[in-house]
């Protein structure tokens, strides 16, 4: 079954694997010659890995992979169920065509073992957790301990990324009916450029069933995204159970469009098993009309319902109760408090609120600040780091808690201002990273740069990453995945790979993205054609997945 | 946890279950009062079952279902892995919100056991297999053996339908955090109106990954569709492996957009486990250009490639080889030979073909008939019953093998003509049942009638059913499900339920279909909004799944 004799290459392998770091960068993707992906003449010299790893070298051997690939673990974290379950998932993906070939009798495969070394037994998943990994692939040889596949990482989350990359190096060869790993030996040292790589889902405008959210999380892991920003509730509906205030989910669209606390915990756990944090959002004081379905007292009046009534202590009791209940579900250190699009009309026009403002010598704008800061205090008292949409920073930056993470959305230029004042920032410029903007094609997403306008290294450090946002006015369970993919992948590479790798000079980007889109579809994800100008449009005619 | 005391209803239950058949039809859905499905005020007296069962009675009890529901099987077919695997699948569906509640300690559920009785041990899945089942649900009682859930069927395939219906009777109650079964006791006697209830998929215009095809099959089973018509190859691409002629899948779009024979067998088996037959199609002599990528000799000439060269024996050798190889994969008795849209230009303009026609004293039309009949002979020699698109019947009905199943598509009126001549017919009138026609809304699909224009009972018998067709010019992995659902469900009820149940007088249809669409999304299927006029359009704004 061998397509080449790897033993004769032993010395080469050893040299590659243990050569100086100068050598590590010596062989890269051939950026000059991407080939047309049509009719079987695909360029096997291209590594179709998405997002592109940080540093890597590769060779020209083709190795076969045993469908009975065994897992051998080492290190304090090696025996984690997070590793073993991921191994089982990726085995299904890598060997999807080999289900009836599992006996493997008589076949001598190059790669029969996967060694996973995880140094730390700490499985806490927090912002900045070490996601780096090293992946080495070489033909085994009895004269050497080097051969086989080895993933080495400090944490289980780095190991997960290593497994994903490994899965992308493998492909089923329809000719020999074996899984092959091309361009070995590989030596990959990888890590993310940004520690926060997010996707927003909005389950208020349209309820997303648990099964769909799990599909989204699963697909995020394929692109190495690591934060699911769950905009759970908004003015349209309140699907989440809050045990302390059990009437709140009366604000759900129907009695079936709800999440129990167990459902939410299950989603958090499902995401953690895939290295993804869930950041919940409670968007106050605007975007909260649905709260009043269960507790009308939080509306300034039945006819004027937003923002939440700033004059009542009950409003803040409710926020305290919601956040305390949610704290039991969401262990991630960041919690989003919204704070966007607050219009003061109801405060100024409702007599008792107007009176309260006068009594406290506040303008409505003062009350907005008062509200946001009081909500921040509640979150901070629960040991959460508050995240707020940029309007809070734009309106009263100097009063914000300095721990606040400023979430950009209105346009460019806010992160530079925020980090100049010492705040951390998340980039989501709506012109390029709001996926509900269907007229933003993949390359506009791809070439957006979170550090634009920030040159000082210490300020750059404060941009913790970015997030693509999928507001759900016209997105529901039926079209969510095809609206976010492949564009979310474009942002994922921007947030993971070296800035210079993800440059317009890199002509491998489009074929790799087309390949990744088809990889998603092979894994059952409804990723839309890459080259349509408008997102989620159907293919314009018959053709290969790899060129649409 | 009881919402009512079922023991006091024992006598009533016994009466319902064992009363005369007159009683069986005595309680039906209240067709007069469907209620608005908004904000939690859903009508619990409505049974949201799709497609509507044949005969049923129900009560007004609400019963709780044990998350540790156990399976007890009886009969020659009860121990089938088809039953036990389906039970596991449906348990996951029914108890999706109860994963952390599996201890069930201290809770006294009404329904703790599912009895499945399958009389026949014969698992052969063929056209006309007995798909009927009886489903009885009543509170258990120590004084009686009647209580619990019982599915009785002659075959495992009837039992599968019973499980699907059972799953639709259950719903998670977010208030009590238990699964409830409403409107018990239930007594359902169900069977399909038509034995052939198909969906066409087209993997030539766009390749559908195995994972996506499995999702389609899984979703078909929810609507009790039972034939996957797999239009595997066409002029655009040839993705299937044919061992006897290994160059044929050179006609695939890329080396990755292929199905091995093992892949195809796996799909057939996956479908069988869900009671679905796979009918393969080899569409000759038109729609076959891609064959020539590997074997250019089947083209009349390199510049004139369709229909296949009628003058060469090699063409028929190739068909024989393909069909013999496919026979090992596809056990279903029906095999589709296409025969549509044959244009004679290449035969009349290519010198050696023209000469052959003259030598054999044939017109091109004669040659079309000769080709189709010779292909039929090959299929029949392999013990297949040939299916052909209606052009073959329209052009040379009297020459067709009388076993031929005529597949209507061009419009209405063909099935009446075909059955009048003794042929069997499948209804797929493109004006209503071609799902690639995006301007056909759900109700046009729903009210199409396969027996239109056929009054004679023996002729009606010859219409074996119908099929919705999803031609894939603009449908790929990204939008397949949202293009077919919910419209395929509309056809599914037409093909399953009593004609009078599926009438425009039945005002439960729309709320039930909206409920079924949301049921699909809860199961992870990308079913599009029901009420959009154009198929696969996004929802027009925020709102509940149940009213879009």
Structure description:
Two copies of one chain form a homodimer. By secondary structure, the first copy, chain A, is α/β, with parallel strands linked by helices. Chain A has an eight-stranded mixed beta sheet, sandwiched between helices. In chain A, strands 11-10-9-16-15-14-13-12 form an eight-stranded parallel beta sheet. Helix content of chain A is 31%, strand content 17%. The first copy, chain A, has helices at residues 10-18, 21-24, 81-94, 156-169, 210-222, 261-272, 313-327, 345-349, 351-359, 364-381, 390-396, 414-420, 430-433, 442-446, 457-462, 480-484, 487-496, 509-522; strands spanning 55-57, 61-74, 111-118, 133-138, 148-153, 170-173, 178-184, 186-190, 196-202, 227-231, 277-281, 334-336, 385-389, 405-407, 424-427, 463-470. Chain A is elongated, with a radius of gyration of 25 Å. The longest helix of chain A is centred in the last third of the chain and has 18 residues, at 364-381. Chain A is built from 18 helices and 16 strands. Residues 1-41 of chain A have low confidence and may be disordered. Chain A folds into two domains: 55-190, Chitobiase/beta-hexosaminidase domain 2-like (Chitobiase, domain 2, 2-Layer Sandwich), CATH 3.30.379; 196-501 and 515-523, TIM Barrel. The interface between A and B is large, with 73 and 74 residues.
């Amino acid at each position: 079954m061998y397509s080449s004799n790897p033993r004769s290459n032993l010395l080469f392998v050893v040299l590659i694997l243990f050569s100086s770091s100068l050598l590590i960068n010596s062989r890269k993707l051939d950026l000059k010659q991407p080939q047309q992906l049509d009719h079987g003449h695909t360029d096997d010299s291209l590594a179709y890995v998405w997002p592109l790893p940080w540093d890597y070298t590769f060779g020209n051997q083709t190795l076969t992979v045993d469908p009975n690939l065994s897992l051998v673990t080492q290190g304090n974290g090696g025996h984690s169920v997070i590793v073993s379950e991921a191994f089982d998932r990726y085995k299904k993906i890598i060997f999807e065509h080999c289900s009836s070939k599992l006996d493997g009798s008589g076949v001598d495969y190059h790669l029969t073992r996967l060694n996973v070394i995880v140094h730390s037994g700490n499985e806490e998943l927090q912002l900045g957790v070490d996601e780096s990994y090293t992946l080495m692939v070489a033909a085994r040889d009895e004269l050497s301990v080097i051969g086989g596949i080895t993933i080495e990482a400090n944490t289980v989350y780095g190991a997960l990324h290593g497994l994903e990359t490994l899965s992308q190096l493998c492909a089923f060869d329809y000719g020999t009916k074996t899984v092959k790993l091309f361009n070995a030996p590989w030596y990959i040292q990888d890590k993310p450029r940004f520690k926060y790589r997010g996707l927003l889902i909005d389950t208020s405008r349209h309820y997303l069933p648990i099964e769909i959210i799990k599909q989204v999380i699963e697909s995020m892991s394929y692109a190495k995204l690591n934060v699911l920003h769950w905009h759970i509730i908004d003015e349209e509906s309140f699907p989440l159970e809050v045990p302390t205030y059990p009437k709140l989910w009366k604000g759900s669209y129907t009695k079936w469009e709800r999440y129990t606390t167990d459902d939410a915990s299950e989603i958090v756990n499902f995401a953690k098993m895939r290295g993804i944090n869930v950041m919940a959002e409670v968007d106050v004081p605007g975007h909260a009309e649905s709260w009043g379905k269960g507790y009308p007292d939080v509306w300034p009046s039945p006819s004027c319902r937003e923002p939440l009534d700033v004059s009542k202590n009950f409003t803040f009791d409710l926020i305290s109760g919601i956040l305390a209940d949610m704290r039991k579900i969401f262990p991630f250190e960041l919690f989003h408090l919204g704070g966007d699009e607050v219009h003061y009309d109801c405060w100024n026009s409702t007599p008792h609120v107007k009176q309260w403002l006068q009594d406290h010598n506040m303008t409505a704008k003062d009350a907005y600040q008062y509200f946001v800061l009081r909500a921040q205090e509640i979150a901070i008292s629960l040991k959460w780091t508050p995240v707020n949409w940029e309007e809070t920073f734009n309106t009263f930056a100097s009063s914000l808690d300095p721990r606040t993470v400023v979430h950009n959305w209105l346009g460019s230029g806010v992160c530079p201002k925020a980090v100049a004042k010492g705040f951390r920032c998340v980039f989501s410029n709506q012109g390029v990273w709001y996926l509900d903007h269907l007229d933003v094609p993949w390359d506009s997403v791809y070439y957006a740069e979170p550090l634009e306008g920030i040159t000082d290294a210490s300020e750059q450090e404060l941009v913790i990453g970015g997030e693509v946002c999928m507001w759900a006015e016209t997105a529901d369970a039926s079209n969510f995945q095809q609206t976010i993919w492949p564009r979310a992948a474009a942002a994922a590479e921007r947030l993971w790979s070296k800035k210079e790798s993800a440059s317009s000079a890199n002509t491998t980007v489009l074929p790799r993205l087309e390949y990744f889109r088809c990889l998603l579809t092979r894994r059952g994800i409804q990723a839309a054609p890459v080259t349509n100008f408008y997102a989620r449009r159907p293919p314009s005619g018959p053709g290969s997945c790899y060129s649409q």
